Amino acid sequence: MTSTRQAPRLLTRSAGTPLWAQLLADLRERLVTGEFVDAFPGELALVQEYGVSRHTVREALRHLRTEGTVTAARGRKPRLGPAEIEQPLGALGSLFAAVESAGIEQRSVVRALDIRQDGTVATRMLLEESTPLVYLERVRLAGDEPLALDRVWLPADIARPLLDVDFTHTALYTELLVHCGLRLTGGREQVRAVLPTRGERALLHVPPTAALLAVERTGCLHGRPVEHRHTLVRGDRFAVTAQYNGREIALSAGHAGARGPAPERSRS
Amino acid sequence: MTSTRQAPRLLTRSAGTPLWAQLLADLRERLVTGEFVDAFPGELALVQEYGVSRHTVREALRHLRTEGTVTAARGRKPRLGPAEIEQPLGALGSLFAAVESAGIEQRSVVRALDIRQDGTVATRMLLEESTPLVYLERVRLAGDEPLALDRVWLPADIARPLLDVDFTHTALYTELLVHCGLRLTGGREQVRAVLPTRGERALLHVPPTAALLAVERTGCLHGRPVEHRHTLVRGDRFAVTAQYNGREIALSAGHAGARGPAPERSRS
DNA sequence: GACCGGCGATTGTCCGTACATTAGTCTCGT
DNA sequence: ACGAGACTAATGTACGGACAATCGCCGGTC
Asked: What sign for the dihedral angle of Cα B65, B227, B107, B254?
C-alpha cells in the first residue's frame, strides 16, 4: 500500500459477465457519484487499481469514449465530456445552414429585442412563471424573400448581454457563445403544420392558401433548458428531411419539391 | 501458394495511416465490389491474407461490425448485414406506434389496392416510368377519428403477393415480410406542410382551416428503393418530434399540443 | 428417419509486451 | 524573464499467446 489504492476493486473473475463489463459498470457507478468531476483516471491507473490488463481497461473505456462520456487522446489527460462539443443542429439549424451553403445571403429584420415575462414559455422551460426572459423576434430573409419568423426566449439572468447585440446579420448561437459563454448541448424539436394568421401572412409574404411549418425548439445545456424558440417556416418552400439506415438518423432541411406539393396529390 | 492467397495485400507498413485503417479501407473497397456477397472472411483468414496480427484485424473489423456492415458472433461464420434487422421507423412508423401504445385501436379503410403505372412515382424510385406498381390507398383511423391518408407504391415484381391481403387491420411492413420476405433496411422521409384538397378534407374530416403534414417516404432495401409512400397526417393533432444530444437523434411522433398550435402564436 | 453427441471453426475474453506519437510541463540557458 | 528543448505522462498502434464459449456440421446410433 505504497501509492494509490491497490486493493483490486470488486471484480468477480468467474462471474457470467466479462471483466470489462464489470469494470464498465463500476466506472459508471463512480461517474454518477461525481468522483471524477475534475480528473478521470488514466488507463494505467485503472490497470493498477482493478488489477486487470490494459486491454481489458481499454475495452471498458471504449464504450465510455464512443459514448462521449469521457475523452481521450494521445498526450492529453483523460477528461469528462465529449471531445468536440458539436452544436446540435436539428432541422432548424440545418435549414439555415442549407440556405447559407446555397450561397444565398441571409439577413434578419429584428422586430423585438427586450425583456419580458411569459408564463407559458417559462413553464415550458421549467422556470418560474415570473422569470424575466430575453425575447428576440426576427423575420429571417433568404435573399429578398422572407423565409421564417423566428421567436426566441432565453432566461434573462444568463442572456442579458444579448440585449445590445445587433442581430440583423449574426446567428444567435454565435452571440450566445461569445457574449454568454454558452454552447447548447442538446435539445428537442417539434414540427407541426399550421395555418398562418393574417399578420404572419403579411410578414412572410405567403398566399392565404399556404401552410406553414411550426418548429418549436427547446435548447438545453447539460439538460437544463436555456432556450425556447418558436419558428414559422414557409412550408411551401422548405421541408424537413430525415434519412436513416436502421441505425442512425440524419436530419436535414432544404427545398421542398419546387413543383408543388406532390404531383400525385391531385389524383384523389 | 498452397491454399488461399498469402501475398500480403497492399498494406504500407510505414505510411501515415495506421495498419488497421488501411485494412478497413481495403475491406470497404472489396465490399462494394461484391466480393463478399456470400461469404465474409473470418478473422484468422484475414490475419493470414494481410499478414497482420489478429488484434489489428479486429480493430478494423470493429468498425464494420458496429456499423452493421458485417455481423460476427461466437461459433457462427461471419455474415454481411446487421445482426438484428431493425425496421427503421422514422416519423411515420413511430406515429402509428405511438397511437398503438396509447391503447387506441387502429383500423384502415382500404380505398384502392391494384396495379398501376405512375411515371412520377416510378422515377422517384429510380425505376422505369412504365414499371408496374402495386398501389395501396388507405384512410387510417385511430379509434373512430381519421388520422391519416396513406398511399403506397411498391414495384409489382416483388410486391404482387400483397394484392390478396386484407389491409384493414394489418401493417404493411408485416405483410411485406410475411408474403414477400422483404424487410426494409433504410429510407428517407420528407415532411412538409400542405393544405388539404377538398377531397382530402372530406376523407380526413378536417375543418377547412387546418393544415396537414405531408410525409413522403422512400423505403430502401440495401440501398435500392422498394417503397414509395405518401401520407397526409392531420397536422392539428400530431407532430413530429426530434430529440438530440449532440450525438444522436431520436425521432418520434405524437400528439401536438392539444391546446391549439401554440399559445404564444396569438401575440404577434 | 430422427435424435444425440462429438468435433472443428469462429469469435469473445484476457493476458503479456513493446514502441510510436502527442500534449503538456518543467528545466535550463541565455 | 522568456524561449527552446528535454522530459514525462498518456494514449495509439501493433505484436504475441492462451483459453473459453458457442454455433453448425457431420456422423453414428437407435
From this structure: positive
Angle at B164 between CA B161 and CA B165, to 5 degrees: 95
Give the SS3 label for residue A88. Answer: coil
Grid cell 417539434 — which residue?
Answer: A190
Q: What is the pLDDT of residues B229-238, one digit of tens each?
A: 999 988 766 7
Residue of B nearest to A69 (CA): B247
pLDDT tens profile A165-205: 999 988 888 888 888 877 777 788 888 888 888 999 999 99
Domain boundaries of chain B, sorted by first residue: 19-80, 90-258
Task: Give the closest-approach CA distance of A3 to chain B in angstroms.
Answer: 33
**Which of helix, strand or coil describes residue A183?**
coil
| Other CB atoms within 10 Å distance of the CB of residue B17 | 11
Question: Do β-strands A238-244 and A224-234 pair in parallel, antiparallel, or remain unpaired?
Answer: unpaired
- pLDDT (tens digit, 9 = 90+) per residue, B146-157? 889 999 999 999
d(CA A178, CA B247): 23
Which DSSP symbol is given to A181?
A: -
Nearest residue to B63 (alpha-carbon basis) of B96, B35, B32, B25:
B25
Quick check: A68 and B247 CB within 8 A? yes
Indicate the residue type of A220. Answer: C
Q: Which residues of B216-248 are buried (b: 16+ CB within 10 A; e: fewer)?
A: bbbbbbeeebbbbbbbbbbbbbbbbbbbbbbee
Architecture of domain A19-80: Orthogonal Bundle (1.10)
What's the distance, CA B149 to chain centroid? 20
A90-258 CATH, one of 1.10.10.60, 3.40.50.150, 3.40.50.11720, 3.40.1410.10: 3.40.1410.10
Cβ pair A238, A253 in contact under 8 A: yes
How far does the CA of B92 sit from the C1' of D3, in Å?
Answer: 63
CB neighbourhood size of A15 (10 A): 10
More confident residue, B132 or B103: B132
Place of cell 401536438: B256
As beta bridge partners, residue B125 has none
* Interchain CB distance below 8 Å, A187 and B120: no
